Structures are given as C-alpha cells and as structure tokens.
Amino acid sequence: MNPSPRRTLAALALLYGAQGVPFGFAAEYLPVILRQSGYTRAQIAALFWLQLPWQLKPLWAGVADRPSVRPRARAALLALQVVLASTMAAYALFPARPSPLPWFALTALAALVAATQDVFVDAFAVRSLSERDRGYGNSAQVAGYRVGIIAGGGGMLVAAGTLGEPVAAAACAGLILAASVGAFALRDDGAAATVEAGPYRTATDDVDVAPGAWQTVRRMLRADTWRVAAVAVTYKLGAHAASTLLKPLLVDAGWRASSIGALVVSLGTGSAVVGSVVGGALHRRLGERAALALAAVAQAVTTLPLILCASRGAPPGLTAAAVAAEHFAGGLATTVLFAALMTATLRSRAGLHYTLLTGLNAAAIGVGGMAGAFAGDLAGPVAGFALAAALCLAPLALLPGWDRHARASAGHSEHLTEMAG
Length: 421
What we know:
Blueprint: H1 5-36, H2 41-45, H3 52-56, H4 58-61, H5 73-90, H6 101-128, H7 134-152, H8 154-163, H9 165-179, H10 181-184, H11 213-220, H12 226-234, H13 237-252, H14 257-286, H15 288-311, H16 316-343, H17 350-379, H18 381-393, H19 402-409, H20 412-420
C-alpha cells in the first residue's frame, strides 16, 4: 500500500471523523433540543430529509473517478474541509430558540459538503486498501466517524450545557479543521494508481473510466449481483429504527440533555470503537459471509435490552448497559458491512460504485428511522424496539449467496471469462 497502511488508516480516521461531527449534531443533538421543544417522534425522524445529499451524492460521485480530477483529490478535500468547518461555525450565529429554521438550513448545507467529501475519501479507501487491510480500514472509518458523531452530538450536549451553544459549535468547527491534516497524508490518486493483484481484481481495474450512474445501477441489479444491493439496503434498517427511538425515550423518562450527552460520550464512544475494531478482526478471520451473519445477530440481540429500558422507564444502570451494547453492535456491524461493500466494488469505478452502495445504506437511515418512529408513536417505544430487533435479522435471508454476488459485483467473473477466452 502506498502510502503505508498505518498512515493511510490514520488519514481515513481523521477525515471520516470530520464527516461525523455535523451528522452527530443532526442525529444526536437536534433530536434532544426538538423533543424538549415539544416536537413529536415523527417530526424528529423527518429530520432525515435534511440529510438528503447523502442519498443524492451518486448524481455527482463519478467526478472522483475522472482522470482530470483524481490528481487533485487532496486539494479538493482541503477545500471541502474548510467549507464544512465554516458551516459548523455558523451554528454559533443563530440560537436554536425561538426558531430552529436557520439550523435546519445549515444542517442541510453541512450534509451536502460532508457527502461530497465522503465521495473522495471513499474512492481513495477502495483503491488504496488491500484485501487484507480492508477490515481494519473500515475499523478506522467507523471509529473515526463514531468519534465525530459523538463530538457533534453527545459532546455538543455536554459542552452546550456548560459553555453555551456558540462556544460548543465553534469547538466542533475547530475539530473539523484539525482533522484536515488527514488530507496531507494522502497521495495524489492519479491515473497511474496501481491496483493490487488479487481475486477481486478485474480486467478494467487499471482503466480510467467514469461511467454514468444509470449504467452502474444496471450492473448492480443484475441477476448475479443484486444481493449486494439488497444487503446494503437492509443490513442497518433495524439499528436505525432503534437509534431513532432512543433519544426521545430518554427525554420522556426525565433525563437531562447533559446526562444524555454524558451517557453517549462515556459509553457510546468507547463501545462503538471497540466494536469497530472487533468487526475488523472478524472480517479478516471469519470471512465476509460469516462475519456479516454474526454481526446481524449481534444487532438483534443488543436491541432486546432497549425493550426492557422502554418498559421500565429507562433506569440509569440498565440504560447504560443497553446503550453500551447497542453502540458496540453498531460499530461491529457497520465495519463488517462497509468492508464487504468495498470487496464488491469495482476499483476503477470506486467513486461512483461504492457511493451507490453506501447510498443505499444511507437511505435505510430514513426508512428504518421512520419505521421505528411511527411504531413508537402508534404503539409505544416497546413495540418500536421489537420491530427494530426483527428488522436486524432480515438480512440473514440474503447471505447464502453473498460470496458469489460480491465476486460478480467486483468484476471477478468477468475477469475469469476474459482469461478463459
């Protein structure tokens, strides 16, 4: 790997961490503030639409694959980091009360910038990580992203309660700027980038092409590749349904915003990071199909304590244990899933292909979140968490054909055909 694996992993962790700060603000901080202001669960879940750029980014993701752009990826990343930090700092100019509308606009803008930055970072990761390093590469991704989410979410809740919202927002902007050093660790990903030979290399891996989104979508829906897309959509539905219900549950149980933030910071961060490291090890040692199955079951099992929390009014001890378990399983499952999606990605089309696959997973945030929210509003949080547990197990039905579909998605079958010819 060029640059060295450790340098690459550190760069990925920093840049993914920068993405996580604004998402943590939207997913962790805003729900608490809005619930305290009387918003319903469904209204809070509707904040997903402010993250629409994450679903729309396939429309411009092919830019990262163009030969004229790839040598300038570092400059593009630095520019995006500065814009993202400036957007985060702008939260300090507008108080959330009496009207959160300016924050909604800034949240949508931050999502647009972060989603575009993600395209470039993902393309670099897919092209640079070897098959052996892919699991730990995604451990760095998930761990960095989780730390960013906690900084912008739980950390913001704690800091805002002691320092005030303006100072807390400025501190988050500073973290994003500091993470920009990760861009300096990346080499210019030019047209001459080499690709490691291996079972997932294709005959087109060294060709600089940037096909349209429609052609890539057609490839993803072929009879020998559709399970990859299906796993991307369904794998995190249950986890997102559960996470949408958690913050309103704690608010309704009388938890203070600072206490919610402290819980997520103290237990959530550590548990998620440990889970992501375990996920990287499982991916390397068990193989993808077994790791995907184990992580799916772990997500379902760790949702069950949340049902007890909801039925007992969220007592502190039980809630702390449940949150730690949920974050551990979330970090583990996300690492395994993203490593598997990298395996199924054509390297020459990494920017667009991987973006489409992860975009399907991002769409599940809204779908799963709305499913859990509606179940919680209609039947209570216990029913919502029960639905989440069932959704966590749904992807198991898709895994028997995973290896074949992943090889076909990455072009392995095409390569064999050309060799035979």
